[in-house]
Amino acid sequence: MKAIKVLLISIAAIIAAMIVIPLTILAGLFVWLKVTEETDDEVMELDDAI
């Protein structure tokens, strides 16, 4: 019975990791795109001023 409980907890942890890790990667990419998008806009504004 204890082995089944450990197995179920392990499976639950793996499934949780399969959900959390990709979401974390996507959130990081989204933030990175927003940060780089803002710097690109600032560079374009500087080019227009020159």
Write a brief caption for the model.
The protein is mainly α and 50 residues long. The chain is built from one helix and no strands.
Q: Which whole number gives the mean pLDDT?
A: 86
Radius of gyration: 22 Å
Distance between the termini: 74 Å
How would you sum up the major sheet?
A: none
Q: Portion of residues in helices?
A: over 70%
Beta-strand residue percentage: under 5%
Oligomeric category: single chain
H/E series: H
User: Tell me, what's the shape?
Assistant: rod-shaped
Estimated structural class: mainly alpha
Total DSSP E strands: 0
Number of helices: 1
- The low-confidence parts are none
Word description of this protein:
With about 50 residues, the chain is an all-alpha fold. Helix content is about 95%, strand content about 0%. It contains one helix and no strands. It is rod-shaped. The mean pLDDT is about 85.
Write the layout of secondary structure elements.
Blueprint: H1 2-49
Give short descriptive properties of this protein.
1 helix
